[in-house]
Design a protein that fits this description.
The protein has ten helices and 14 strands. It has 385 residues and is α+β, with helices and mostly antiparallel strands. Among the domains are: 171 residues, no CATH class; 95 residues, no CATH class. Strand 3 and strand 4 form a beta hairpin. It is elongated and about 130 Å long.
Length: 385
Amino acid sequence: MLPVIERSGPIEAWIIDDTGFPKKGRHSVGVTRQYCGQLGKQDNCQVAVSLSLANRDASLPVAYRLYLPEDWAKDQGLRRKAKVPQEIAFQTKPEIALAQIKAARAAGLPEAVVLMDAGYGNDTELRTAITALGMSYVAGIAATTTVWPPGAAPLLPQTRSGRGRPQTRLQRDGEHQPISVKALARSLPKEAWQTVAWREGSAERLSSRFARQRVRPAHRDATLSQPRAEEWLLIEWPQDETEPPKYWFASLPEDIAFDRLVDLAKLRWRIERDYQELKQELGLGDYEGRGWRGFHHHASLCIAAYGFLIAERGALPPSGPVCSVPLSRSAIPQGYRPRGAADPTRTAHPQLDRDSAQTPHRRTRQNPAEVPLLQRIDAQGTQNS
């Protein structure tokens, strides 16, 4: 499938995400009360974590695993009924995603920027682990995430000349405190905001107002001996909104173009379309079994079918490559006559046309007899018709 996806361009992103499957009962493997993106609230559901490879024209999940809640992982009775393999232990969703990234790297898949929403981007350990692998990311974050704004940083550990243990961790004081990304966004001047377009929508090109700043993430840096490296903070604040709705950390090069940064942050929309088509067109959410193996077998078949559709869609214009050879028009054979058309060169066959067509027998219509009007005699003896 990779050659088909790469036909329109190289792989630009690895997208981490999860999808929920609402359930009424409690017996299907992995079902518990948790947040379900499909419902937009907490309810009984299953959740699967996936890793997709994508460019601007196509994307496909390459890893897919059911999230097994901690109560399921510890209950041997539930595990036995659902036939959960013994090697499957409890892992958080970010831990599952990190394992999928490592497996994809080991398989030799073409590396790209890792994209994730705030559900994963808020996990500092996940972002740190991705950086340790030598990969870049664009991660959604919450508005309450704290950062050191441009020109600010925590205090370095101080050496002591007298008694006592020397400092080994970063320090803060009244003048050296991080701020939330929401507060930073509100403090930016008007000239810091630019309108950037990123792709064609159904009616017009999509655009919004963005600002970017070089910052240092401040979450739990009091346990570190050195400040974290600078990275981009991308903020989206549409003109008609009262406050910014979206924020991203991006560990991309400092010289990256503004529009390219926005384009990568917005490329995560492809996974939303993948799940929509997988569920609505291919039945990903219609699995009614209760076992671990059946859940993943059903998903594998749906993803394989989705890959086939991507291949077929990409082979035909306009989705196909520019160099696609157009189909040639078939030549009309000499003497061709459309079905139902009269043959102008028809030869008469008197021996077959001796009898004229019979007229259907119809019974002559008789004029109906006149129906006499009924007469009514009222109480006074007067006749009324």
